Structure formats: structure tokens, C-alpha cells
Amino acid sequence: MIRLLLADDHLILLHGIRAILESDPELEVVGTASNGLEVLEALKSIEVDVLLLDLQMPEMDGLETIIHVKKSYPNIRILMLTTNDEGSIITTIFKNGATGYLLKNSSQEILIQGIKDAFAGKKVLSPHLTEKMINSLSDKPKSLPGLTPRITSRELDVLKLIAKQLTTQQIADELFVSTNTVATHKRNLFVKMDVTNSVGMIRKAMDWGLLDD
């Protein structure tokens, strides 16, 4: 029996995925979560073989969750289930320890087989994403004059507020946007700046002079 923890902030989708997976006698859903913080809390009390994880979630998004889970629970297989098909995101996700990456429009059969393959330690990737992943590895990042990547004004706003130690909710309130939007900007900054956590991001931003007034 493969023990699964599902994480997605869309409850209707979460319940639908659970129903699909529980139709297979080899799969057991032992818990659900709506963000990364809930995932980490759940893992304190339940044993999980495969974590099925959305990428864009409030409080703590998928990328941050992977980093924390792999550090504390290195044997858990992590399979992303998301709508994001951006090549650079996919390579970053695998780089940080994910076992697989599937899109939410995948068929029931592909999803169930993907979970079983991930449990077996095999790398899982939606077929048409292979080319995007290869291209992201070969493409050189677009940069501004100098060495820094192209960061939007809104991403810079988020970066500066993170440096002030504001939470995701506080940043959302400050900028009058949703927590999901803040999480997306933060994830994009991780990719563009080639870092895996906020500390590394702030340190690199200081080196690049992005936090200078």
C-alpha cells in the first residue's frame, strides 16, 4: 500500500483527486493539506510514502515545501501536480529533490501510474514537458546590463518586503494582491536568482544592490 499526502489549496480539486486515487486498491490517502505549512505539520504525525504537491499555494508554496520536506524527510517521494509548464520552474523543482512533475490535465491513468513510478524511485514527467525542460537547460538566462537577471518592478517590491521580514499575508496586504500572487512572485524570484530560500535570495539581492534605496 502506498501512503499518500495530498496538498492543494483548491478544496474541490483536492477532494476530486482524493476520490480518484482511492479508487485504486494500492493507494491510500492518509492526509490532505492546503499549503506547505500544513504539510510539515501533518508529517509530524503520519507516515507518508509519496507527497502529491501543488506548486502555487499560500503561506508556503510548493518549492519551499520541497526544500523543507527533503531536509527533514529525505525518503519521501515528491510528485508535483500543477498547471505550470514553464521549463525553468520544472528544472528548479527537480534540482531541489522532486521525483516527478505532472500537469493537472493528465489522465487518471497517468496520475496513478506516475504515483506508483515515483514510489518506485523512477523520475516522472508529463511527456510533452521533456522538450521544455531541455530547452530551459540550454537557454541562457536573459539579463540586464551586468550580471543580474531581469526582475520586474512588482517582483522587486516583493523582494524588498521579504527583506523587511514581512510574511506572505502581510506582503499581500501591503501590495493589495492575493497570497497566491505573492507566492508566484516569490517562486519566480527563486528561479531568476538561482536560490532555494529567502535567506539566499536576500543575500544575493544585497550583493547585486537590489535593496539599495
Helix content: 40-55%
Oligomer: single chain
Helix vs. strand class: alpha/beta
Specify the biggest β-sheet. Answer: 6 strands, parallel
Order of helical and strand elements: EHEHEHEHEHEHHHHH
- Spans where pLDDT lies below 50 across 5 or more residues: 140-147
Q: If you average the pLDDT, what whole number results? A: 86
CATH level-two architecture of the largest domain: 3-Layer(aba) Sandwich
End-to-end Cα distance, whole Å, is 56 Å
The number of strands is 6
Question: Which geometry do the CA atoms define?
Answer: globular
Q: Work out the strand percent.
A: 5-15%
CATH topology of the largest domain: Rossmann fold
Q: Measured on Cα atoms, how large is the radius of gyration?
A: 18 Å
Put simply, the count of helices is: 10
Order of strands across the biggest sheet? 2-1-3-4-5-6
